[in-house]
Design a protein that fits this description.
The structure holds two protein chains of two kinds.
Chain A lengths: L5 H10 L4 H19 L2 E4 L1 H16 L11 E4 L26 H9 L3 E5 L33 H8 L5 E5 L6 H7 L2 E4 L20 E5 L2 H11 L29 E5 L9 H16 L3 E5 L7 H16 L18 H12 L2 H13 L6 H21 L5 E5 L15 H6 L5 H6 L3 E9 L2 E8 L5 H14 L12
Parallel strand pairs in A: 2-3, 7-8, 7-9
Antiparallel strand pairs in A: 1-3, 4-6, 5-6, 5-10, 9-11, 10-11
Helix pairs in contact in A: 2-3, 5-6, 7-15, 9-11, 9-12
Chain B lengths: L4 H11 L8 H15 L34 H5 L5 E2 L2 E2 L7
Antiparallel strand pairs in B: 1-2
The chains are: A alpha/beta, B mainly alpha.
Chain lengths: 484, 95
């Protein structure tokens, strides 16, 4: 059942050939069988899932079903889920039962998508490997020695291993696209402000954006339809007419102008990854697209700018974890200051502490102009590069990450080397643009994604290109041998 | 840029995160590496560039001044480490 496309699942559910209860049970069985080793779920919610599946079956029987009614989903453990532990993979929130639903969770509940559980991630979404989780690293289903990427590594792994048909992720500096690339799944980060941040544990609010993680572009379009939309509870939610992200899927690619940024194929890019990406671009060219060279001259400014701004925002956002209202509290504090200092020191892991400290320093008196303000200026320069490049192309294509998945433990001692590996995804977050990772091949059994980036609000176009690419390739249909 | 013990203690206070004596060197080393990464920004000419706070340069949306939240004190306090009669408990602050 787990090898069906979402469209097939949906048709079988509507025709009564299968029920949501059967489908949900099938995934729960697979989770019990496989997740012990994979560690992709932080929490599995079988009772909630089955209760929701029964409700979904009633809805289908009553003829009130939507496309995704009855299809189970896994949420990254950053989405608050009423009555369910929402840990953000941190000791700080190990005891936190969310008292309300994130907007995305509410939306998918309304559709009737049973919640299988909450997926593992880098602590507070700060990382690119899912190794900084308090609950231990998630393994890459394609090779258990490799990381699944991060921070949405658990969500990518459950899709690749067939432990959920659909999953949610969040992308602050590449956290949907990079794990999608590492695990061979499709993942899209929409334009900043398209999906409400309400109830998503905040990391860097001017970057945080949720997106779907699925097998195919078609599946992603449907899930994004359910996730996106204006929400007044998010102050940066965009007030726009509802969009049908699946409307352009089958459009022809004839005449599409694809920009290839020369700077994305420079030093540091693994030659085998480069070959896969260039082959994928050639495939799109065969479908009628025209390839043009474009330039993003300030690309190298993106990583330092991001690692000032995101930690600065994090240091402010994470000040809420004070050991008073929720989360971890230290034993026997001697005074209020001691309560704050020790609760935070005990509750946060090393990388989270590092980013809070760096951010606090960047915002501190005497350094604000040199770090924070300077980084915001570079942010505009990076954004303006994209604006200019899109004058001569419709979308851009390049790599998602410079290498395939690296080994567990390979980069943990050197945080800055991990930061630098985000060089292709971060500029897109700085600019707030939509970007998608599409499975495009393998290097030694480890998947590699094609990165497609478009102007603001071009999600439907990105999904259209990914869909057409997936009509002539089968990378997105592959499953690791042991999970078939 | 290389941070010393004094700077680490200062940052620890700013961030309200305790740093144990034996961790100071490691924290100083890793933070210094990150600040080295930032120093790449110095050489860039940003004269006349406006700082960018929002990708679409949007301004904050206003809403009518009406109550939208309902009182959920019990539910929200159910996840607190220590409460009493609807109040959050902390160590004594005033002698």
């Amino acid at each position: 059942m787990h090898n069906l496309t979402i469209k097939q699942m949906s048709e079988k559910l509507q025709s009564g050939e299968i029920t949501s209860v059967q489908l949900t049970q099938h995934y729960l069985d697979r989770i019990s069988k496989y997740d012990g080793e994979l560690n992709a779920y932080v929490t599995v919610t079988p009772e909630l899932a089955m209760a929701m599946a029964e409700e979904a079956d009633k809805k289908i029987a009553a003829g009130q079903a939507e496309l995704l009614t009855g299809i189970p989903v896994a949420h990254k453990d950053i989405f608050c889920t009423d009555g369910v532990k929402t840990s953000c993979s941190s000791k700080m929130l190990d005891n936190f039962i969310a008292p309300y639903d994130a907007h995305v969770v509410t939306q998918l509940k309304k559709v009737g998508m049973p919640i299988l559980g909450k997926t593992n991630m880098d602590e507070f979404a700060m990382g690119s490997s899912s190794e900084s989780s308090y609950y231990g690293p998630t393994k890459n289903p394609w090779d258990h020695k490799a990381v699944p990427g991060g921070s949405s590594g658990g969500s990518a792994a459950v899709i690749a291993a067939g432990l959920a048909p659909m999953a949610t992720g969040t992308d602050t500096g590449g956290s949907v696209r990079q794990p999608a690339s590492f695990c061979g799944v499709t993942g899209i980060k929409p334009t900043y402000g398209s999906v409400s941040r309400f109830g998503i544990v905040a990391y860097a609010s001017s970057f945080d954006q949720a997106g779907p993680m699925t097998r195919s572009a078609e599946d992603s379009a449907w899930l994004l339809n359910a996730m996106a939309g204006f929400d007044e509870r998010d102050s940066t939610s965009l007030e726009r007419e509802a969009v049908d992200y699946s409307a352009e899927l089958t459009n022809s690619l004839k005449g599409l102008k694809v920009g290839v940024p020369a700077e994305y194929f420079g030093e540091g890019l693994d030659p085998e990854v480069e070959k896969i990406v260039r082959d994928a671009i050639a495939e799109v060219e065969k479908q009628g697209a025209e390839i043009v060279e474009v330039h993003l001259p300030n690309k190298d400014l993106a990583v330092p700018s991001y690692y000032v701004l995101a930690p600065a925002e994090a240091s402010s956002n994470l000040s809420r974890f004070d050991g008073v209202r929720f989360g971890h509290r230290c034993e026997q504090p001697k005074d209020l200051q001691d309560l704050y200092m020790r609760s935070r020191s005990e509750g946060f892991g090393a990388e989270v502490k590092r980013r809070i400290m760096v951010g606090a320093y960047a915002l501190s008196s005497g350094f604000y102009d040199a770090y924070y303000l300077k980084a915001q200026k570079l942010r505009r320069m990076v954004r303006d590069d994209f604006t200019k490049a899109f004058e001569s192309c419709d979308v851009m294509m390049g790599p998602v990450a410079p290498t395939p998945a690296f080994n567990i433990g390979e980069k943990t001692d050197d945080p800055t080397s991990m930061y630098l590996a985000d060089l292709y995804t971060i500029p897109v977050n700085l600019a707030g643009l939509p970007g998608i990772s599409v499975p495009a091949g393998f290097v030694d059994d480890r998947p590699v994604g094609l990165h497609i980036v478009g102007p603001y609000f071009s999600e439907a176009k990105l999904l259209n290109i990914a869909f057409q690419y997936q009509q002539v390739t089968d990378w997105h249909t592959k499953t690791p041998a042991q999970y078939q | 840029m290389s941070l010393g013990k004094t700077e680490v203690e200062y940052i620890s206070r700013l961030a309200a995160i305790a740093v144990e004596e034996q961790e100071v060197d490691e924290v100083a080393g890793k933070l210094s590496n990150i600040l080295d990464l930032f120093s790449q920004m110095e050489a860039v000419d940003t004269d006349g560039v406006k700082p960018m706070a929002h990708p679409l340069d949007q301004v904050q949306r206003l809403r009518p001044d009406v109550v939208t939240e309902t009182n959920q004190r019990e539910k929200l306090q159910s996840v607190a480490p220590a409460t009493d009669q609807g109040l959050y408990l902390v160590p004594q602050v005033i002698e």
